[in-house]
Design a protein that fits this description.
There is one protein chain. This protein is of the alpha/beta class. It has eleven helices and 26 strands. The protein has an eight-stranded parallel beta barrel, surrounded by seven helices. It is globular, with a radius of gyration of 23 Å. 51% of the residues are buried. The structure holds alpha-L-arabinofuranose. Alpha-L-arabinofuranose binds next to loops. It comes from Duganella lactea. InterPro entries: Alpha-L-AF_C, ASD1_cat, GH, Glyco_hydro_b. It holds the Pfam family ASD1_dom. Residues 1-21 form the signal peptide. Keywords: Carbohydrate metabolism, Glycosidase, Hydrolase, Signal.
């Protein structure tokens, strides 16, 4: 078959099933909250090949690198304008002792990564290396402190080491190790998942420990990080409730974790590829629970913080599947398909709607772990559909959210699940343009979405679309270009109305003019 015929056939397949019509109205006259750029934050834990091999190869590696960080991976991450990186964990953070990761690398102690596969932890990546990475990315740093096996003294000294501009012994040690000026720490968290791997605590007990620790986190005013309390997960709002009451005066925000699992069961989560429509829709239905979780946690916080001074920081989220066959189960390595890009976009639209309270999120995780942006195999790397979702949504970083209303949206139903067919969000970006994101959750049917802006004639939309013929379309090292965004545009018809035909199972981001 010649390539043109093949292209036409592919388009027909994408548009299979009859389209339905909906209408979106963007209210540019009532701008909402600014979408903090940190909503597009990333998470890099000492877990599997998330750091070692995935991004860090060491300065002596044959893989081209800068100060030990892979040039190819760093370059790709720069393209999605990563605003923030959370490090060193996760569960790893509560067993991490920062002094193990400073000074000459060959003299650093080797530890066991007890959480993730029981492998050796060389401590080659420590505080200075992490700040090299965020510098290379042009990102901010989110450092997670160790409450589980650490102490107030250890966290206090780490903050002093990183941020002090005095002549103290610790500040001078940082200078001796190669960094004269204080590091800029944007956020510092006191522990991680204190309800589980971080120490199996109650929220009340954690609050008392937090108060003690926070008292001693001293930093010069201009270098003082925002301090984060480690909160709850899933549908448990008790942590947000207790922490916003107890810690209101001593915290900048409360973290929250929610992972999307196709089956909803940790024992058998579901496969990352070769799934059927029942697990396409169950995954989307489960991920949309984020909306309810945010609403309930925010409402719990409203009781003690109606002014919304505290942020709800979703500092771990994303899909979690069964690991790929033949890989170390402790490394959480999974493939990433069009379904993951749709999951990412659905969550972005939810975060935008809650921009007032949700001021930072970190997808788990940046490279080779869970819902990753990038997968690597020795010197090869590939960009995942999730990477492209982040790339397409870049204009939303720091944009001002705009209220939208959706008329005649339908439900897509299958296998006993029901989700709205279209998900959308809009914002006025820093370049002054209005951007619209549209997701069609239905894998079988396209949707015609009329776009209105009261008081404005919408002439055209221009941007990119991410879709494919298969629900599990993904990139491999042998075929790394299987799925990537394509140009997308539409213009108003003779009647002056503009309709966007959103293909089945697709993500679209366009500038509206
Ligand atoms: O992201 C993987 C793990 O999931 C993190 O270490 C932990 O915080 C969560 O349970």
């Amino acid at each position: 078959m010649n390539p043109i015929k093949r292209g036409v056939l592919a388009l027909c397949m994408l548009a299979s099933g009859s389209a339905f019509a909906a209408e979106i109205t963007i209210d540019t006259a009532k701008p909402g909250a600014v979408i903090n750029k940190d909503v597009y934050g990333q998470f890099a834990e000492h877990l599997g090949t998330g750091i070692y091999e995935g991004i860090w190869v060491g300065p002596k590696s044959k893989i081209p690198n800068t100060k030990g960080w892979r040039n190819d991976v760093v370059g790709a991450l720069k393209d999605i304008q990563v605003p923030l990186v959370r490090w060193p964990g996760g569960c790893f953070a509560d067993e991490y002792h920062w002094r193990d990761g400073i000074g000459p690398r060959e003299k650093r102690p080797v530890k066991v990564n007890t959480n993730w596969g029981g492998v050796d932890e060389s401590n080659a990546v420590g505080t200075h290396e992490f700040f090299d990475l965020v510098d290379l990315l042009g990102a901010d740093a989110y450092v997670n402190g160790n409450l589980g096996t650490g102490s107030a003294q250890e966290m206090s000294e780490w903050v002093e080491y990183m941020t002090s501009d005095s002549k103290s012994t610790l500040a001078n040690l940082r200078r001796k190790n190669g960094h004269d000026k204080p590091f800029k720490v944007a956020y510092f968290a006191v522990g991680n998942e204190a309800w589980g791997c971080g120490g199996n605590m109650s929220p009340q007990y954690y609050s008392n420990l937090y108060k003690q620790v926070e008292t001693f986190l001293r930093a010069p005013k201009q270098y003082r990080p925002k301090i984060i309390a480690s909160g709850g997960n899933d549908n448990d709002v008790v942590w947000s409730e207790v922490l916003s009451k107890e810690l209101k005066k001593q915290t900048d925000g409360i973290s929250f974790h929610y992972y999307t699992i196709p089956t909803g069961k940790w024992e058998v989560k579901g496969a990352s590829t070769a799934f059927q429509e029942n697990e396409w829709i169950s995954t989307l239905s489960n991920t949309l629970r984020m909306e309810d979780h945010i609403q309930k946690n925010s409402a719990a916080m409203d009781k003690h913080d109606p002014e919304k001074k505290l942020g709800l920081f979703v500092d771990e989220w994303g899909t979690w599947y069964d690991v790929e066959k033949g890989t170390n189960p402790g490394f959480l390595f999974q493939q990433n398909t069009l379904r993951d890009a749709v999951v990412a976009a659905l969550n972005f639209n939810i975060f935008h709607a809650h921009a007032e309270r949700v001021r930072m999120t970190n997808i788990a995780q940046m490279v080779n772990v869970l819902q990753a942006m990038i997968l690597t195999d020795k010197d090869k790397m590939l960009l995942t559909p999730t990477y492209y979702a982040y790339q397409m949504y870049v204009p939303f970083q720091g944009a001002t959210s705009l209220p939208i209303s959706l008329k005649d949206n339908q439900d897509y139903s299958a296998a006993g699940f029901k989700v709205p067919e279209i998900s959308a969000s809009a914002a006025r970006a820093k370049d002054g343009k209005v951007y619209l994101a549209l997701v069609n959750t239905n894998p079988n049917k396209s949707a015609d979405v009329a776009v209105n802006i009261p008081g404005q004639v919408v002439k055209s939309v221009k941007g990119r679309v991410l879709t494919a013929a298969a629900m599990d379309a993904h990139n491999t090292f042998a075929a790394p270009q299987t799925i990537k965004p394509a140009a997308f545009s539409a213009t108003a018809g003779a009647d002056g109305k503009l309709t966007v035909k959103v293909p089945a199972k697709a993500v679209i981001v366009v500038a509206v003019e």
